[in-house]
Amino acid sequence: MNRIKEVLELKGIKQIWLAEKLGKSYNMVHSYAQNKRQPSLEDLYKIAEILNVEVKDLLIERNTNSNK
């Protein structure tokens, strides 16, 4: 899972702008933002660079606690 949509909203950036900077279609970036698809590691690093954030800021930490 990722926080791309949240980070875009916090920075006031539109998905279409990110799609243009990333060289991807709007539909692809929208799929990333909706967590319907996950970007490749390469694209995740590009997104982080474009948005001027750390890669970890784009990720949702998964709870691996087995005592649920």
TrEMBL record:
Organism: Polaribacter reichenbachii
InterPro entries: Cro/C1-type_HTH (IPR001387), Lambda_DNA-bd_dom_sf (IPR010982)
Gene3D superfamilies associated with the record: lambda repressor-like DNA-binding domains
SUPFAM superfamilies assigned to the protein according to its UniProt record, in alphabetical order: lambda repressor-like DNA-binding domains (SSF47413)
Entry-linked Pfam families: HTH_3 (PF01381)
Lineage: Bacteria, Pseudomonadati, Bacteroidota, Flavobacteriia, Flavobacteriales
Name of the protein described by the UniProt record: Transcriptional regulator
Domain HTH cro/C1-type: 4-58
Single GO term (MF): DNA binding
PROSITE patterns xrefs: HTH_CROC1 (PS50943)
